[in-house]
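Weekly structure sync, notes
Attendees: PL (lead), two postdocs, one rotation student
Agenda item 3: pending single-chain targets
PL asked that the sequence for the first pending target be pasted directly into the notes so everyone works from the same version. It is reproduced below exactly as submitted, 238 residues in total.
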Amino acid sequence: MFRVNNLAEVPGQRKIFESPGAESSLPVAQEARRRLDRFGASSLGDEELLALILGSGGGVPALAIASRICRQWPDLSRLSTIPVAVLARQAGVSVTRARRLLSAFELGWRAQAQVESSGIAVQRPEDLHPLLRREFQGLDKERFLALYLDTRHRVRGVETVSIGTLNASLVHPREVFKSAIGMSAAAVIVAHNHPSGCPKPSCDDLELTARLDRCGRILGISLLDHLVAGDVEIVSIR
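Predicted structure, written out during the meeting:
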């Protein structure tokens, strides 16, 4: 998901100091914006990308904060699972900047997930396991997903229907089938995670599956399966 560039190999790249002042950071930020406009985002290093996302909004220059974040979290993907308040405190940034950063990570993740999921041919539940593990990784709340398939059972869309509390997710059939009707899906697979780590379906899970199945039959859109993800296993209710 993240493109890592060697800053020394990027033409025109200037050295970024660990704690630059406003005077030293301004030319570097301007250079980053110039190369972004001319060569695209792939020409920038991680610190520059973070700095442009963080933008203004505090007394500390964005490049100084970006440098600190890259040192503290070498694996940038970990940032996407940190709550806003915790990220703001640990990274030493304002809540506004933390929101910008997490929003950018989520948008990038969704764009990548759409590319990776598009066209997956589902012949058995295991075909979706890699996609679902990525979707549910690191979550401490229930997330309920709907996957929309065409007549050949290829995934044409993935949508988050609801995000619940630590142990509950509120789902209504109309939210599941609204997009299915809009994209003329032939079938639907739903999936959700159990933050407890245990994938055993609950009584509520079984009841919801039966309700969705009845609604799908009325609409002519088959509910192929309901998958429940734990820490290790993914269970198919079907």
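Discussion points:
- The longest helix spans residues 95-117.
- The beta strands are 143-149, 155-163, 187-193, 222-229, 234-236.
Action: rotation student to compare against the earlier draft before next sync.
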